[in-house]
Amino acid sequence: MIAVDCASVSVGRKGTSLLRDISFRLNGAGFVGVLGPNGAGKSTLLRVLAGLRAPDAGEARWNGLATPRWPARKRAAFCGYLPQQFAPAWDYEAGDIIALGAGRASAGDASPGHVLARFGLTALARRRWSMLSGGERARVMLAATLATSPALVLADEPGASLDVRHKLDLLRRLRSASTSSLVVAVMHDLDLALRFCDRILLLEEGALVADCSPDDLLAGDALDRVFGLRLQKVRRHDDHDWVIGLG
Amino acid sequence: MTPQTDRRLQPRRFLLLTLFLAGALLFGLVAGHEWASPARLARAFANSGGHDMTSQLLVVWRLPRVLAAAMVGALLGVGGAIFQGVFRNPLAEPYLLGASGGAAIGATIALLVPLGLPGGPVLAALSFLGAWGATWLVLGAAGLQGRPDTAGLLLAGVAVAAMLGAVRSFLMLALSDDTVNLQVVLSWTLGGVQTPDAGGLAILALLTAGALAVSLPLARGLDLLGLGDDQAFAFGLDPARFERRAVLVGAAVVAAAVAFGGLVAFVGLIAPHIGRWLIGPRHRALLPASALIGAALVAVCDGVARAALPPAEIPLGLVTALIGGPFFLILLMRRLRA
């Protein structure tokens, strides 16, 4: 059972408002994409959902309980957060980072060795962070995040700094995690968002302007309006829609 | 080239460090303005004190001094590892960041101000308060949100250390009345281990063991902090609360080191560095490794301090600064260029 509520969440800093009165409810497993132009408040929303940022009004709730009221260890086991950028202060080994991620739950099946094997990272266990490629780092972070099989997975622009192949690989892994977990990901790439997500939250200047399925989003004109583009849909042979921005 | 830190090798590396410490202790016993050969040492210890003057000196005077130096070094190593962990910066060091200076002010006040209270506990308490307050001053000035950058952190530390040095000098000038206390305070500021009596040595041993005992539970939190505040939070840590706790422990460890060894520079910087190089960055191994390395370093430096300029003794802090200063500069240059 997993339910995430955003109840009238507002975040404002010195007059400028980053999020305005955002409310929605996410129920059960699935892949939810957060879309919007730069500065729309996507990352802020994700940080509020993660409990990393306290909203100035309203609250985020997991399973009915406001995020600050979750005890630290339970909170960490329940929710995995995949940051956009990550640079450890010390040159940890891949296995160290996975051990730290796995150690947040008391469950025995999340032993670092198991997690490494589950994610096919055993060969990298002793490799130092500085010696890992971008794609390997992303896989290590994903494994550390998913180590405890969290019910809720929050990802801030997964794969933003990766090449297309590694980005797709990362999104596929998140997609397969979304069969049993609720994955909420800030997405930059419209094509990929429409292809991977079951549901889209569209933000514009801190406000939620659309909350619907990718098909409904494509049928309406909200995307064109928010991004200031004229978008053209192209149907591919495998039934996926491509979106092309025509400026 | 970074040596392998395969965990299967760790027991062997700890054995190596222990042997290194044993060698350092031996050097400390041999060195002095009168050098004693290992055979001479063996003879002195064999008839436990002996009756001749040299044996007496070695057993009653030099042995406790060497042990005290090693334990002060262990405290500095642990304190340095905690500071670097909390600040997430390999250049953080209690001496550079003013914590040692704060402790020295506390000690100065305890020694020079007639408070009419029992000396030992007051000195300990004031040293601790000084170290703790100074650390928070630096934390506040540098800002600990996320990862404070190296330059900002060091500048904040330098500013706080300079202020504390001025306050300490003022206190020394204003409160001195040609008593012996001023001499004690001065030796404090230059760093130097006094030869403790049996009681003092026992207290120091308890403090050292206690420092390790309260530091080891911080290991997981320090590991997590190294991932950055957000990731530490996501992995179940409350970074702000943990930092408060770690700074408290770090200040207590530094205060203990300062109370027994004065202002000894750079050991808290070098020991965790060598430790990370040999053992890796995980704090459960790094904290005890830093203790062993710090102990060996100070035991050797104290021996040098006693032997370099006979019959005078040069302050321990000078020796460690001469060795540690260049080490620090090289690290700083490498970091600022990266």
UniProtKB/TrEMBL annotation, chain A:
Keywords annotated in UniProt: ATP-binding, Nucleotide-binding
GO MF term (any one): ATP binding
Gene3D superfamilies in the record: P-loop containing nucleotide triphosphate hydrolases
Record-linked InterPro entries: AAA+_ATPase (IPR003593), ABC_transporter-like_ATP-bd (IPR003439), ABC_transporter-like_CS (IPR017871), P-loop_NTPase (IPR027417)
Domain called ABC transporter: residue spans: 4-230
Presence of keyword Transmembrane helix: no
PANTHER family: ABC TRANSPORTER ATP-BINDING PROTEIN, HEMIN IMPORT ATP-BINDING PROTEIN HMUV
Family classification: Belongs to the ABC transporter superfamily.
Name this protein carries in UniProt: ABC transporter ATP-binding protein
Automatic annotation (TrEMBL), chain B:
Membrane topology: Multi-pass membrane protein
Keyword Transport set for record: yes
TM segment ranges: 63-83, 95-117, 123-144, 151-175, 246-274, 286-308, 314-333
Pfam families with a match to the protein in the record: FecCD
Keywords: Cell membrane, Membrane, Transmembrane, Transmembrane helix, Transport
Domain of life of the source: Bacteria
Compartments (UniProt record): Cell membrane
Similarity remark: Belongs to the binding-protein-dependent transport system permease family. FecCD subfamily.
Protein name (database record): FecCD family ABC transporter permease
